[in-house]
């Protein structure tokens, strides 16, 4: 029951790009790779508006439903809009992102949160948190098993015992039963700051790498084109459960909706569906197991 759309949540880690025919550095999945939307955070928010702060409100409600505390780390925080909202309702929030432009925007727009530059696959902060959020598929920039394991290991190392990991992302299992996202290229025209940006997006599955690869061609207001490649890991519920277990987490909920980017969309008070995982979004709540007291097996 989720709303498909190739245009959904797609800033992040491109795998090389060319602007007007000029080759840009190729940094597969790397934090320094270029991406038109992450380089233009205001355009990102215009392309993916969330005026009601649904994503942050959903994360807050999920956190409270599962007994989370108030110190929160938002990995892949982007423009900082979720971090800013959560700080405004009383959380002590740190946002981490690999995009300098996103962080500049976040720091200017959201003074109540702290923002740090880092790579969610490998980060080192001096603080522990009660909740780690990773929203709008940021987790899926962990392309390899080693990157996913690294992400979870660093999450575990930054959570208090019984701390929560809350993530929201595309659902790999959706593609087991549906090709609709793959069959229909997405074309959009976005008017921002009196100029029109057009994008044409196609998705394909790389079965060997288990990635959903996206090609996007932007036509900029001056007529130049920008071709960017990026990819998300296709994660399936069972393998996610396995990785989480190995990293010391208990899965409390894994469900396809309702969430902030599903159709029908989440509304305050709506409970997670019971273990359904056929929609195009996947929502995860996992709790870090408290270490066993010394002497216990
Ligand atoms: C789709 S956006 C989501 C932003 C935000 N969580 C939201 O929901 O609006 C993905 C974000 O992940 C960031 N990102 C991608 N790869 C990353 C990495 N390896 N480490 C840290 N951030 C990364 C991008 O810069 C981008 O801001």
UniProtKB/TrEMBL annotation:
Keyword Plastid listed:
no
Gene3D superfamilies, from UniProt? CAC2371-like domains, Vaccinia Virus protein VP39
Query: Cross-referenced InterPro entries, in alphabetical order?
Result: Methyltransf_25 (IPR041698), SAM-dependent_MTases_sf (IPR029063)
Return the Pfam families for the record. Answer: Methyltransf_25
Keyword annotations of the record: Methyltransferase, Transferase
Residue ranges, annotated region (Disordered): 1-36
Q: Give start-end positions of Basic and acidic residues composition bias.
A: 1-21
Does Ribosomal protein count among this protein's keywords? no
Q: Which SUPFAM superfamilies match?
A: S-adenosyl-L-methionine-dependent methyltransferases
Name the Gene Ontology biological process terms: methylation
The record places domain Methyltransferase at: 73-163
Any one GO molecular function term: methyltransferase activity
Under PANTHER family, the record lists: METHYLTRANSFERASE, SLR1071 PROTEIN
Protein name, please? Class I SAM-dependent DNA methyltransferase
